[in-house]
Amino acid sequence: MVLGCSAAGVDSLAARMADEVITVGPAPAAKSYLDIAAVVAAAKGAGADAVHPGYGFLSENAGFAQAVVDAGLIFVGPSPRAITLMCDKAQARACAMKAGVPTVPGSEGVVENLASALVTADQVGYPVMLKAAAGGGGRGIRVAADAKELEAQYAIATREAQSAFGYGGLYLERFVGLARHVEVQILADGERAIHLFERECSLQRRRQKLVEEAPSPSLDSAVRQKMCLSAVALAESVGYRGVGTVEYLYDPKTSEFFFIEMNTRVQVEHPITEMVTGIDIVRESLRLATGEPLQHNQAEIVLRGTAIECRINAEDPQKNFMPAPGTVNELRLPAGPGVRVDTHLYEGYSVPPYYDSLLAKVVVWDCARPEAIERMKRALGEFDVEGLKTTKPLHLALLDDEGFRVGEYHTGYLEANLSRIVSGIAD
User: Where in the sequence of the chain do the CATH 3.30.470.20 domains occur?
Assistant: First the structure.
C-alpha cells in the first residue's frame, strides 16, 4: 500500500504502517491534498493500480476522478458522471425527485438571483434555508426567518459558496425545524443496489457531527423500510457504482422524511454500520471499483444490536471549542469485545494544525442501545491522550444527558443545550 500525504503527514501512524510513502506537496492542503496533478503523478510514479480518495479533500471531486481514470488508474469510488450528478446538490435534488424520493419543498434547481429566491420562499413558506449547490459536510448553509433576513443572507451565502467551493450557486428549501439527520448506507454495482440500513447523526455542533449511532432510535420499522428503499431507488436510477450515503431530514412528529444530499464517498462514521451488519464497507468499495458485481442480496443484510461512534477532536469544549493541536505525550486506547478505535495517533506524535481536528473515532457495539451507551462510557473512561485538550469530557457528558439516553434529540439539540452540558464537565 502506497500512502500519498503532505509534508505534515509523513510522521502519522498511517505513514508508519504504509509500504511506501510519497509526499505530494507541502503542508497547506491547496498545495498537496487538493493538487490533482500532484496526486495523480504520485500514484503513477509509485506504480499504483488504484487511488482511494479517503474522506475529504478530493474525494467527491469529479475532475479528480476523471483525471485518475484518464491516467489509466482505478478510482475507488463512483464514476465521474455520478459524482457530478450527486455532488451538485441542486442536480442531486432533481434526480431524487425524478426517482420518487421525497424532497423538502423548495427550488427545482439553483435560484438564479435574489428575486427568484424571494418568489420561491413565498411559495414554500418561511423559514427557509439557502444551501450551496456545490456544498457538503454541513457547510454553505444559511437560514432566513423572513424576506428581510433572506435579502441580507443571500449575498453572504453566495460569497461563502464561491469562496468555499469555487461555485456560488445556491438552492432554497423550506427549513424543517427540530428534525433529525438520518442517513442510509448503500452499496451498488451500476445495475443493482442494496442498503445497509441507517445511521443517526443528529448530535451536531455547527452542522458537524459529534456522535453517531446505528440504527436510529427514532425510526419504526415501516419508516425505516421506506427510507432505505428510497435510497436504493435513487442509487439505481443514476446507475451508481460503489459505496454511498443518502442523507435525510426526518420529522418524528409527522414521520415524514426528506432527501438532503448524497455523499459519494465512504463516510467517517461508516464503522458503526459495519458493526451492526458485519459488512466491511471499505473492502466492498475496493471490490466494486474493480468492476465486480454485488456479492450480497438485500435479504442477507440483517441488523444486529446497536453501535455508537464518538468523534474525539483536538478541541477544548470549555473554551468555545478552541483548536488544541500539540504533542501526544501519553496515549491509552480502549480495547476488548465490542470496542474499536480508529486513530492516527501514537505517543510522541505532533498533531498538525493544518487540517480537521479529528483525533480518533471510538466505536462500540452491544446487543441493545442502553448496553451500548454503558460500553461507550467505559471505553471513553479508558481513552486518554496526554498533552492536548480533547472533546472526550463533552462526549462523556452527552452520554449521561437525559435527552440522548432516551433518544429524543434533534439536529439543534446539542447547540440549544450546549451551555448546560458543558457546565457539567468537571475541570
Answer: 180-423
pTM: 0.91
CATH architecture assignment, domain 2-82? 3-Layer(aba) Sandwich (3.40)
Instruction: Say whether 265 is catalytic.
Output: yes
**224, 241, 265, 287: which is the annotated catalytic residue?**
265
Q: Which ranges in the chain are annotated with CATH 3.40.50.20?
A: 2-82
State the fold for domain 180-423: D-amino Acid Aminotransferase; Chain A, domain 1 (3.30.470)
Q: What is the CATH number of domain 105-174?
A: 3.30.1490.20
pLDDT tens-place values along the chain, 427 residues long: 999 999 999 999 999 999 999 999 999 999 999 999 999 999 999 999 999 999 889 999 999 999 999 999 999 999 999 999 998 888 998 999 999 999 999 998 899 999 999 999 999 999 999 999 887 666 778 999 999 999 999 999 999 888 888 889 999 999 988 899 999 999 999 999 999 999 999 999 988 999 999 999 999 999 999 999 999 999 999 999 999 999 999 999 999 999 999 999 999 999 999 999 999 999 999 999 999 999 999 999 999 999 999 999 999 999 999 999 999 999 999 999 999 999 999 999 999 999 999 999 999 999 999 999 999 999 999 999 999 999 999 999 999 999 999 999 999 999 999 999 998 887 6
**Three-class DSSP labels, the chain:** CEEEEEHHHCCCHHHHHCCEEEEEECCCHHHCCCCHHHHHHHHHHCCCCEECCCCCCCCCCHHHHHHHHHCCCEECCCCHHHHHHHHCHHHHHHHHHHCCCCECCECCCCCCCHHHHHHHHHHHCCCEEEEECCCCCCCCEEEECCHHHHHHHHHHHHHHHHHHHCCCCEEEEECCCCCEEEEEEEEEECCCEEEEEEEEEEEEECCEEEEEEECCCCCCHHHHHHHHHHHHHHHHHCCCEEEEEEEEEEECCCCEEEEEEEECCCCCCHHHHHHHHCCCHHHHHHHHHCCCCCCCCHHHCCCCCEEEEEEEECEEHHHCCEECCCECCEEECCCCCCEEEEECCCCCCECCCCCCCEEEEEEEEECCHHHHHHHHHHHHHHCEEECCCCCHHHHHHHHHCHHHHCCCCCCCHHHHHHHHHHHCCCC
